[in-house]
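Lecture 7 notes: from sequence to structure.

We start with a single chain of 203 residues. Read the sequence below before looking at the structure.
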Amino acid sequence: MLFALGKGLLSGILMSLMLGTVFFSLIQNSIEYGWKKGMMIASGVVTSDFFFITLAILGVQFINPDEPNIYIHGGAVIVLTLMGLNMLSNKKTSISYPQTKFGKALFFFSNGFLLNILNPVNFLFWAGWATVARAEWGYEMPQLISFFAGCLISIFFTEVLISFSANRIKPYLSAKLLDWINKGTGLIFIGIAVYLVVDYLVH
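Now the structure, written as tokens:
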């Protein structure tokens, strides 16, 4: 369980660096209203991720890790490949900072929650990781909980750190950097998909 937790902590850091609307909203609002408001946005993001993860975990309970299933593996491969190709083919990379004029903590929490939960790709993302963890790594419920708990803990504290460092981070962000990070993340997703295919064929 500690190994699963550690893997989740490392994975969460990488997930937090996936640049999107939440990332830039976090930076912009932290600069305008302070890092504590950014922390509320991070809380909203983690809360919505918790709902996605809960659904994903419940959905993979029927998978028997000892019996490779072409449909389960195929679904995970397709999701990861499509997400990877989408990141690699996005040629119109731009930096956008969604802004909010609300000053109360609840509204900043809602900002992070809604920006994250209204993006259907996020659920597919967590469903893909749950499938990999169950079918490929053979994780049972305790390990699944430990892994995803590590992800959520790491995501929250990484985003709080981003909020705290927003003024220093923003000047270094550029469309070119965003493009490289997106393409790097896309290659990682495709690499995992290829690994799943090879592993299924070998076994």
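The radius of gyration is 17 Å. Keep this in mind for problem set 3.
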